[in-house]
Amino acid sequence: SSRSSAGGNVTTTAQLRGRYTHDRDQHFDKFLEAQGVNWVLRTVATNTKPDMEVNVIGDKWTLITHVAIKTLTWHFRIGKEAVIRGPDGTDQQAIFLLHGNTLVQENIGGVASNVKVERHFTKKGMEQVMTHLPSNTVGIRFFKRETTTY
């Protein structure tokens, strides 16, 4: 269905859909360090080059993150609480909000509740801005949009 309860959502979600490949990071190690992640796990995390997929069908969103050793698949609806599995295998409550071309992830309770994630989408790619709220430490992962040929 192409109906939309708010003007522009169909166009916006169509612009966000797609595959994104990791390009580079900015201060990602400092962000992980602020969270208390040990050196070994920080090194592993900073060496991962994830690919991401964003799918939207109606009001059902799917965010898939592919890394060499695992795939994380999150299903959610904008404005509704969802359970997502973190990279460490633990479940986390989160709510996703959409502000223009920015998908905001607010974690509720649990170990990741001190982190806010904003995914800013452009025609060329996506910037995943992660903020450790207590220290205001920001790490950014940059992704390029894959061009699709039909």
UniProtKB/TrEMBL annotation:
SUPFAM superfamilies: Lipocalins. It comes from the Eukaryota. One of its GO terms (molecular function) is lipid binding. Belongs to the calycin superfamily. Fatty-acid binding protein (FABP) family. This is Uncharacterized protein. It comes from Meganyctiphanes norvegica (Northern krill).
